[in-house]
Amino acid sequence: MAKKAYFIENINEEKWRFLINWVRKKAFYFVVVKEPDRIKTGFFKTERVYPKDLELLKDLLVEEYDSKERWHCKQFFSSHFYKFRIDKKVWKLLENETLLDLYLNKGIEDPSFFDINDNPILETISHEDYAFVFLENKEVQMFIKKGFEIVEHKWGVD
């Protein structure tokens, strides 16, 4: 089935719970932006280490990388990404946090979900309470009935 990208804003706690339950049935990978922790190794030296806030997911880590690609466009700066296999530990991390709380309390930014072929399902911009969802036609009405105001988004089109 062909999917289209839709933009959502004002993701409150109820909408975040709906999105998590919806994506739970589809996702294979979980990706977050988070700067590594730093430990002091010398007078002016630090070393990047795996973040404590993601310790629960360490055994699920698939990939860690830096990229300027974010939200399907090139950024001016590079971000640090962690990509995990989906497991019940991911849902445990997310179950008691809102999208904005993940960012403010844990520094976990822009949680996103991908299918087994690395196709996006749900991508977020946590500090703005925004998301992009990739929906089949039959899912659009379900989102509207749940109170989402969704706007079709065409990448690279003004």
The fraction of residues assigned to DSSP E strands is 35-45%
Question: Count the helices. How many?
Answer: 4
Low-confidence stretches: none
Q: By helix and strand content, what is the structural category?
A: alpha+beta
Number of beta-strand segments: 10
Rounded average pLDDT: 84
Please tell me what the overall shape is: globular
The tally of structural domains comes to: 1
Instruction: Indicate the radius of gyration in whole angstroms.
Output: 16 Å
Task: Give the proportion of residues in helices.
Answer: 10-25%
* Largest beta-sheet characterization: 8 strands, antiparallel
Provide the spatial order of strands within the biggest beta sheet: 5-6-2-7-8-9-1-10
Distance between the termini: 26 Å
Order of helices and strands: EHEEEEEHHEEEHE
Could you characterize what this model shows?
This protein is 23% helix and 40% strand. The chain has 4 helices and 10 strands. The chain is α+β, with helices and mostly antiparallel strands and 158 residues long. A hairpin with a 5-residue loop joins strand 3 (37-40) and strand 4. The chain has one domain (4-153). The strands form 2 sheets. Strands 5-6-2-7-8-9-1-10 form an 8-stranded antiparallel sheet, covered by helices on one side. The protein has a two-stranded antiparallel sheet with strand order 3-4. The longest helix has 12 residues, at 13-24. The protein has helices at residues 13-24, 88-94, 99-106, 137-145, and strands at residues 4-8, 29-33, 37-40, 46-49, 61-70, 73-85, 109-114, 120-125, 130-135, 150-153. The relative contact order is 0.27.
